[in-house]
Amino acid sequence: MNIHRWMSQHFFIFFLTWGIFLPYWSGWLIDEKGLTVSDVSFMMSAGLAARGITTLFIFPYLLRVWSSKRLINAFGIATFLSLLLYIPSQSFPALFIATLLIHMCYPVLMPALDSAASVLVQSRQLKHYGKSRSWGSIGFVVGGLLLTLFTGAFGDGFILWAMMLGVLVFMLLSLFQTPEVLTVKPERTKETSFAMRDLFKVKHFGLVLLIVILLQAAHASYYNYGYIYLQEIGAPKYLIGVIINIAVLSEIIFFAKADTAFSKFSVGSLLTMAALGSTLRWILVFAFPNVIVFTISQALHAASFAMGHYAFMRYLTKNIPPLQVPNAQGMYSALALSWSTAVFTILGGYLYEIEPRYAFIGMIICTIPSMLLAMTYRKVEKRG
């Protein structure tokens, strides 16, 4: 079978739904369910906290007793069932429960797919992670653009139905052939250790993890308030999806070329450039509150997100033993993509209600320390 095609298809469909969920879900809760910005800020932050628990503890444990295929299928079904709960939910408590459940199930598919890709790379069945991952970014763009067309025709209520359709297609992928290495659950021997603390025995793992935690946390305001901020500064509604997807187009270009264009760059150099690009991005959004500059700054997503993620994946595949990959992915997903984002979502919401621009400049509290740490790691890396 074509391993690259299998991995690319799964990345494409998952991130197609992610292109709906990430930028539009907060706005959908506000517009369709009548919640306030502070309500959604609290709800999404609690969801991110729940997501962190699932990805840090439940995901690595299940990947020790289940195969990758079984785990991906199980969480795909759980995600679909969680989405169904939103249909009858109207009160804050009901929506809060639905949001906790969707965050506990749906985002687990991201580290599950990245772990599958890492296993395929380490077993030399997948040659280029970046090229397969670029199809995820393409899916994100397609999801956002299609949603723009359909919400224009049918209203924001279509967002939920689009999510459900995308997740259903993802579930149907399980009917096709899966790479054999992903259908076998890990076999534990007496010498095998799955302890998460053993990751910190790997050279510089703690420092690299801290850098990417800060890098990813800096996206909290953008992910949760970028959509409504564009409305705030007068962006035409029909163009908002296009503007958001410029960031993902920059991801596509980066991931498609990363394996060759950045093959000679060290992980430390990549992390330093990512932090520099992220800092510049949020300064531009703050200093020039208009649609044109926001649109231009979207290109820096290639540095602030894609380069940081790619650098961590490169560090992981070169330094982390295969049986510890789920632990590393779970820790990255929980700490970098969930808990830190949850904390800064609350900060961003507080700043947004004072002045929308403050929510973005506030993110340099993460990017500047990450840049200093990345420069330190780069020096340490050179010394070996």
UniProtKB/TrEMBL annotation:
Where does this protein chiefly localize?
Answer: membrane
Q: Which UniProt keywords apply?
A: Cell inner membrane, Cell membrane, Kinase, Membrane, Transferase, Transmembrane, Transmembrane helix, Transport
GO molecular function ontology, one term from the record: kinase activity
Q: How does it sit in the membrane?
A: Multi-pass membrane protein
Q: Where in the cell is it found?
A: Cell inner membrane
The reply to whether Cell wall biogenesis/degradation figures as a keyword in the UniProt entry is no
For this protein, the parts annotated as crossing the membrane are: 12-30, 42-63, 70-88, 94-113, 134-152, 158-178, 199-218, 238-255, 267-285, 291-312, 332-352, 358-377
> Is this entry keyworded Iron-sulfur?
no
One cellular component (GO) term of this entry: plasma membrane
Could you tell me which residue ranges the Major facilitator superfamily associated domain spans?
5-360
Known NCBIfam families for this protein? Answer: mfs
Q: What is this protein called?
A: 3-phosphoglycerate kinase
Phylogenetic classification of the source organism: Bacteria, Bacillati, Bacillota, Bacilli, Bacillales
